[in-house]
Amino acid sequence: MSNKIIVAFSTDNTIFKRTYISLLSVLNNSKSFVECYILYSGLTDFELKFFRDLEKRHSNLKIHFKQFESSIVTKYPVFNYINMTYWFKFWFADMFPEVDKVLYLDETIIAQDDLFELYSTNLDGFYMAAVASPWGNIQLENLNLENKYYFARRVFLINCQKWRVNKVLDNLISNCLKSSSLVTSDGELAIINKFLGNKIYRLDCKYNYMEPWGNIKVQYPPTVMAEYYKAKNQPVIINFVGPFPEYSTCYHSKKRIWWEYAKKSPFKIKELQSYKLSATSAQNSFKYSWLLSRVFPYIKPYLPRIVLGFLMAIPLGLLDGVTAFALKPYMDYVIGGKTFALDWHGISFSISSLQMAFILPIGVILFAAFQGVLRYLNEFFFFKIETFLALFVI
Predict the structure, then answer these.
(1) Residues 316 and 356 grouped into a single domain
(2) Could you tell me if residue 284 is inside a domain?
(3) Is 334 in the same domain as 213?
(4) Which residues of the chain are under the pLDDT cut of 50?
(5) Same domain, yes or no, for 77 and 43?
(6) Which of 15, 23, 214, 275 is most buried, taking the most CB atoms under 10 A from its CB?
(7) Which long-range contacts (CB under 8 A, 24 or more apart) does 297-306 make?
(8) 132 and 170: one domain?
(9) Of 235, 270, 305, which residue sits at a domain end?
(10) What is the pLDDT of residue 176?
(11) 59 touches 126 (CB < 8 A)
């Protein structure tokens, strides 16, 4: 195993389990030797032991631990999805002068392939390499930036040698203190894009595949969209932005992959059992569909009678709410044979018993459809609110 990649993670006691799962995915797909640097804050010996045990079990892994003084970054804002440890990457090049290049990863990623090709990217003339954000045009407009791309976080290939030579750390820190409004907009990522954006090499979308959530949509330029769709089929690194796979509000198409690695970890993730129940429900749903496909040919000749019987039964109490209101006129005008007549300001009209037999069921069906729309809107807005709240706890 002659090839070697150098990766780094920043973590603390709130995200170390996800960090472990991300590193595990890198190892399981690596054909290269992995030298890993873990910058941490607030981890106990018990929590660090998980990583040390992982190192013992993998002959292709060497971990360097470095405790980071969190007070250094407390002056910078931490909000919503921005963890304090995301700032640590600024100091990496100066803390480890023996490293010329590092693949800096966040805890939200899962590797699906060997990362040596990514690590071998030529960074001559660039401070780093990253994937352009699928919705970066929004941030470019919000921050009034004229950059071609707004680069996403989670996956950074950093040219440490160039950072040290050009004193990038000092430059970024001084600009952080001068640009508080910029920092509060998107944390360390806004600073990176503002002051390094034109010296960042754009990586293929497959190295940081993201999916939209909520009202966010993918807004790549047309030249990049084909690359994005190809990445969806064969991603090298999957980035779970938005609600994380641990939560029921996560609708990422590849969350199953994250759970495959989560189940290999030594942690008891509290949502794991509910996920298994959901998977069991899906399997049962498949079984019911299969059973229906076998039964349907036998009931197909009787479908007209079934539909007619259903329409006749609607006013008799199968739908809630409106059925009680519709029952009496149905009995009076349809069953009783009465004619509905109305005389209003000299205008008279009537509806026969036969006509009422069609009007009442249609009215009930339309009302039921209206109820269904209201229920859908209620569930839709509840999901939006639940998704919004989930962003504060990932």
Answers:
(1) yes
(2) no
(3) no
(4) 271-288, 290, 316-320, 390-394
(5) yes
(6) 23
(7) none
(8) yes
(9) 270
(10) 83
(11) no
Task: Count H helices and E strands in the chain, helices first.
Answer: 14, 11
d(CA 69, CA 188): 17
Contact 3, 250 (CB under 8 A): no
Q: Which domain holds residue 9?
A: 4-270
Query: Residue 200: its pLDDT value, please?
Result: 98
**Encoded tokens for 56:** 């013992």
109 phi/psi in degrees, rounded to 5? -100, 155
Across-strand partners of 67? 40
Residues 246, 130: one domain?
Answer: yes
pLDDT digits (tens, 9 = 90+) for 65-82: 999 987 887 767 655 557
The DSSP result for 171-235, as a single string, is: HHHHHHHH-HHHHHHHHHHHHHHHHHGGGEEEPPGGGSB----TT------HHHHHHHHHHHHS-
> Are 124 and 77 a contacting pair, CB within 8 Å?
no
d(CA 93, CA 95): 6
Strand order in the sheet with 200-202: 61-67, 33-41, 4-12, 101-105, 155-159, 128-130, 200-202
Statement to judge: residues 265 and 377 lie in one domain? no
Please answer whether residues 152 and 208 qualify as being in contact, where contact means their C-beta atoms are separated by less than 8 angstroms.
yes
Cβ-proximal residues to 194 (8 Å cutoff; 6+ apart), any chain? 143, 145, 175, 179, 182
pLDDT value for 177: 75
Q: CA-CA distance, 214 to 385, in Å (whole number)? A: 10
Q: Can you tell me the distance from the alpha carbon of 136 to that of 29, in angstroms, rounded to the nearest whole number?
A: 29
Condensed to tens digits (0 to 9), the pLDDT of residues 201-230 reads: 999 999 999 998 877 889 898 889 999 999
CA torsion, ordered 348, 354, 359, 365, to nearest 10 deg: 170
pLDDT score of 216: 82
